[in-house]
Amino acid sequence: xGGITQSPKYLFRKEGQNVTLSCEQNxxxxxxxxxxxxxxxxxRLIYYSQIVNDFQKGDxxxxxxxxxxxxxxxxxxxxxxxxxxxAFYLCASSPGGASGELFFGEGxxxxxx
Amino acid sequence: xxQGEEDPQALSIQEGENATMNxxxxxSINNLQWYRQNSGRGLVHLILIRSNERxxxxxxxxxxxxxxxxxxxxxxxxxxxxxxxxxxxxxxYKAAGNKLTxxxxxxxxxxx
Lengths: 113, 112
What we know:
The complex is a heterodimer of chains A (about 110) and B (about 110). By secondary structure, chain A is an all-beta fold. Chain A is built from no helices and 11 strands. The interface of A and B includes residues 48, 96 and 100 of A.
């Protein structure tokens, strides 16, 4: 089945550690996105990529990094510089252009101990 | 920043009743979308309405868009317990360059 796979679903991290969240899609979409969601809140954009080997900062990029070496993969690294990393992270993809509809993965919940 | 604002923040209704939630935004848009999120899950796209459209239907969903008031509404008719979820509006701002801005969501509880 076509879709977006995020892993791991749950992740625990000690303060000062970097962690990488995986996002893979087999929808052949050009655009991919990372959002952060805090309890009871909406989504805030961290990074997005509209084409391979190119990405842009979103509204809350500080303390995060990404890469887009392959069309189907868009991993997110939460670095030790992110002051409050405990959150629910959602990856999405889109065919791009005028469509605009996002297809989401099931999310990764990161907890810093 | 979250440019879309949903109202109400939470809504509790009985099964069979209609649920209405509203979204306001601030600047010109290409389109506005509604998404649904079950607790602890990813978001699912419900409906997209373009800036030149005023109303769209999809099953039990009806979305309206009033660009003069910069607002949209989502109506769920004949609600079911399975409609219990959070609903988010997302705006594709013309100045934003092909990315969506999400509001804070409306949490809907449908009691059986």
